[in-house]
């Protein structure tokens, strides 16, 4: 039986390079390591004072599509004063997307909500209540395509240089 170095499609394969005793061993690096030494966050938000949650903002999931903001306010008012109720709605149908953010007056009231309302039933659905990761939601997107950046007021490097040259030609 003869062994050939041909692959599945008839192409010849070259043998794998073997480390020789003369060459020094190379350090192997994982491909998943970041090229920079600084660790970078992949999140869109910057850690800021505004985004820090002092503990009174709650994230509520598992809501029925029939739930309204007033239903949520009444439900959470059992454990303390509700400052703000932000029920996230589908932009087209205007019905609940199944989650909300509730801001309680105090962290103690928020902790009571987590303790007593987490895994409770609202409108026939088991809801989950936990501390939100941020004190406020992300800045909403406009919800429509606004075109390429060059057409929205910013320009590419070359376009900016051409504009600068044209501007200076008019000055003098």
TrEMBL record:
SUPFAM superfamilies per record: RNA-binding domain, RBD
Key words, A-Z: RNA-binding
Biased composition (Low complexity): 13-25
Keyword ATP-binding annotated: no
Compositional bias annotation for Basic residues: 26-43
Region (Disordered): 1-58
Domain of life of the native organism: Eukaryota
RRM domain location: 56-134
Pfam family, one: RRM_1
Protein name (record): RRM domain-containing protein
Residues annotated as transmembrane: none
InterPro entries (alphabetical): Nucleotide-bd_a/b_plait_sf, RBD_domain_sf, RBM, RRM_dom
A single GO molecular function term of this UniProt record: RNA binding
């Amino acid at each position: 039986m003869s062994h050939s170095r041909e692959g599945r499609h008839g192409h010849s394969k070259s043998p794998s390079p073997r480390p020789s005793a003369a060459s020094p061993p190379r350090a192997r690096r994982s491909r998943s390591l970041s090229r920079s030494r600084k660790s970078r966050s992949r999140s869109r938000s910057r850690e800021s004072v505004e985004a820090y949650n002092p503990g009174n903002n709650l994230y509520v999931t598992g809501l029925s599509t029939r739930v309204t903001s007033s239903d949520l306010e009444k439900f959470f008012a059992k454990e303390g004063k509700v400052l703000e109720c932000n029920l996230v709605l589908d932009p087209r149908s205007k019905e609940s997307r199944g989650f909300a953010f509730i801001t309680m007056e105090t962290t103690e009231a928020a902790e009571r909500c987590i303790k007593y309302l987490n895994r409770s039933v609202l409108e026939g659905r088991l809801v989950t209540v936990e501390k939100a990761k941020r004190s406020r939601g992300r800045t909403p997107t406009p919800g429509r395509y606004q075109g390429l950046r060059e057409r929205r007021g910013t320009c590419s490097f070359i376009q900016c240089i051409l504009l600068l040259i044209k501007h200076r030609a008019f000055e003098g």
